[in-house]
User: What shape does this take?
Amino acid sequence: STFFRKVQSSAARASINGGGGGGRRGSSQGNSFFVPGATVGTVLMLGALHARRLYDDKKIEEAREKGIELEFHPDVKATFLSFLPLRTISRFWGFLTSVEYPIWLRPHVYNAWARAFHSNLEEAALPLEEYASLRHFFVRTLKEGCRPIDSDPCCLISPVDGTVLRFGELKEAGAMIEQVKGFSYSVSSLLGAKSFLPMTACENIQQESGGEDKSMGDETQKSWWRVSLASPKVRAISPESPMKGLFYCVIYLKPGDYHRIHSPVDWNVLVRRHFSGRLYPLNERAMRTIRNLYVENERVVLEGQWQEGYMAMAAIGATNIGSIELFVEPTLHTNRPRKKLLHSEPPEERVYEPEGNGIMLKKGDEVGAFNMG
Amino acid sequence: STVVLVFQAPVSSANERMPSDFKFCIERGDRIRMGEALGRWHD
Assistant: This one.
């Protein structure tokens, strides 16, 4: 605002100095200052926001290095997000990023993107001029040999490029995964109530699920209005315990990462489930402030069997990367315009044929991709 | 965007002489690339 006041006062001075017929000239000079001034102001504001974000990220990183866990802490800004038309915003973002650039502009745009989000452009399979739009560039394939697959037959590989957020064995009643310290969500809510998750009946659920962790069950008792607005799938805690040897891993993909999803092992995909939920952002701040983030967001779940038993992979969308494409089912469309107000529809499910065998995927095979918007 | 994997993996029973437990070979906050091992077990 100081900058604009200066620009306005200099414009006014120019107008006074010009006087009479010269006043018109002075006014046009003021206008010509105003446009670059507004641009500079916008750039400065974006720069300040980016600097603040980097500072926050650094603080979080430092805290993590010191062993301080991020804690769940809902805030007003997060509540405000639920009133925004995030799906419409996401779809509009998709439309914007689908706009084709002239060939001479493409390397500049993609280089700027790579600098901002730390992408390695040397890995891109095609020359930058061949990516017609940012959306096309975002789901780029990689050069042959950029991602060697671990050849150990007794290993499970990462299906994506990303940052490991959580991993471990599911032992607790209800099979809960911690979102951040102080809040957990249940795996059956994430994968669907009809999932084949190997569980065993548990009689001591009250004793086992209680304690220091504010799990979903506790929250639902405390907050009736949240229960009434939440979809049915997130209300109840499962009265069962996971079988021994059930593990999980949560991997977060930053905007600069390679955004294709691959198969982690050789497995048979039997069922696909599409949850048409919300499209909250999935960044660190959102994780700390939005309840049931992964359970509420739009996602596609693939479920099947591998040599060691059960296998499920959930690809969860966000505001900027809202649509999930499955190469094994090209007809699936996600991030569709929403007709109903409440987010309580059951997931749309498809059993892959032939029944009992499903679709065979090899370790490292491309399964799908996250698209912009 | 985020990917969550849920899977069964080998765990050895108490009376096995050679443990064949699945072990993650990653740490929280690690950057991982597609194709790198998340965890291993012994045959």
